[in-house]
Amino acid sequence: MRATAANWLELADKAYHYRRDVLTEAERTALQLATASLRRQLREKSDAGKIKLGIEELEGVLRRTGGTHYPKSGWMENVEFFLVAAIVILGVRMYFVQPFKIPTNSMWPSYNGMTPEVFASKADEPNGAGRALRLVAMGARPRTLDAPVDGEISIPVMGYGDRVAIPFREVAGRNWFIFPAKLKEYTLFVDQRPVTLTVPIDFDFEWVIRDAFLPKTEVSQQSGGVDLASYLKPRRSTIIETQNGVSLWKTGKHVRRGERVLSFDILTGDQLFVDRVSYHFVRPQVGDGFVFRTDHIDSPSMKNRTTGQQLEQYYIKRLAGTPGDTLEIRGTGLYRNGAPITGSKAFGRNATQEGNYPGYQATGLLAEGQTYTVPADSYIALGDNSANSQDSRYWGTVPAKDVVGRPLFIYYTFTRRWGVAP
Questions:
Q1: Are 154 and 251 in contact (CB under 8 A)?
Q2: Comparing 106-115, 137-146, 210-219, 365-374, which segment has the lowest mean pLDDT?
Q3: What's CA 420's distance to the chain center, in Å?
């Protein structure tokens, strides 16, 4: 009863402060007296019966004076609660901590974008419970492609030479069956019969092809993707020239009708919290993973290919150069002011190509034999997955005013990657 009385007193205070300017003197006095009486009963620890009478007296006054604050429906209380919660969340997100999802694999293996897990056959695919668990723990979404006829699998390729890619077309789709999104649609062939599947626009489908069709003993696993040219170049006999610059690669893999052409899960990218406060008090340091906006990066690479409008997105890279620094790539290592760069383990791992780190590739601003000095109020941002990263080598420097913050904590997925951001 005392807890109930406390709730009524809170409501009475709220009604008084919201409406005292429109209440008559008699109404204000009645509300103050009923409130004071119930508060005194609580202070004197009156029995439940007296407290109940005090509540009933206060309720009667509130019915006459409370306006829209009493009586109030439950749904109005819920709307008010969620509105205040939304304002608080937006404030925290804007000024303190912002959630961020890694979209691509330019920072792999330090941070994962969407990555595939390929299954060799139906028998290797997770069962229903396994799929549910993988969806919750890793955001895994399955993709399967079945053969419409018996025959050999062929994959369209284009740009045969130093670089090979699998052509696709952009199509409209939806995320979570609700939100509009752009997707990539790929077409493969089984005995000249086309079969198609769609994947998110930022997903690296070549990675699936590598794991599904290329021998692991012949293809490097370092780049987080695959340069098909290195595999296909000595195998010209498997390429059938066609029109419009697109050829067919005969994979040599045969399937029967109804068998899997492809089966894989798309694992969602790392989702992390970004600290938006620190860089207001300390300058970004070389080696930091840092998040920035692309609004003022003046480069053709930062323009929409169709409309020509500036891309306004959040990117995450590793800070490699501050104002006045001179950078150079020698071999697979990055040098800062004439010495091997320090500040992050990723720098050293790239230099020695340790584990899955592919090493830095000299191109663009940091082409072989070329140095670059960072101008004032600017930063150089490089991806840890240098072989598969669009970064400052291609589009230049990041204006200091567009730096957002640094990664704090990977809160999803629930794997060994969960924890403090590297």
A1: yes
A2: 210-219
A3: 16
274: three-class secondary structure by DSSP? strand
Looking at the 3D structure of the chain, how many domains does it have?
3
Note the residue count of the chain. 422
Instruction: Please check whether residues 141 and 48 belong to one and the same domain.
Output: no
pLDDT value at residue 95: 86
Q: Give yes or no for residue 160 having a pLDDT over 90.
A: no
Give the orientation angle of helix 2-19 with respect to helix 25-43, to 10 degrees: 160
Phi/psi for 21 (5° steps) reads -80, -15
Q: What's the CA gap between 157 and 133, in Å, rounded?
A: 35
Same domain, 221 and 363: no
Q: Do 261 and 274 fall into the same domain?
A: no
Q: Specify whether the CB–CB gap between 67 and 239 falls below 8 A.
A: no
CA angle (272, 278, 280) in 5-degree steps: 130
pLDDT of residue 219 exceeding 60, the answer is no
pLDDT-derived band at 410 (thresholds 50, 70, 90) equals very high
Q: Quick: pLDDT tens for 74-95.
A: 677 788 889 989 999 888 888 8
- Can you give 261-276 as a three-state secondary structure string? EEEEEEECCCEEEEEC
Whether the predicted pLDDT of 272 surpasses 70: yes
Q: Give the N- to C-terminal CA distance of the chain in Å, as an integer.
A: 53
Q: pTM, whole model, 2 decimals?
A: 0.76
Instruction: Burial-class residue 178 by CB neighbours within 10 Å (0-12, 13-18, 19+).
Output: exposed
**What is the residue range of 347's domain?**
270-420
**412 forms bridges with which residues in the sheet?**
271
The mean of the pLDDT values for the chain is 90
Q: Return the half-sphere exposure (C-beta side, CA atoms, 13 A cut-off) of residue 358.
A: 24
Query: Where is the domain boundary, 13, 39, 69?
Result: 69
Residue 367 CB: number of other CB atoms within 10 A?
14
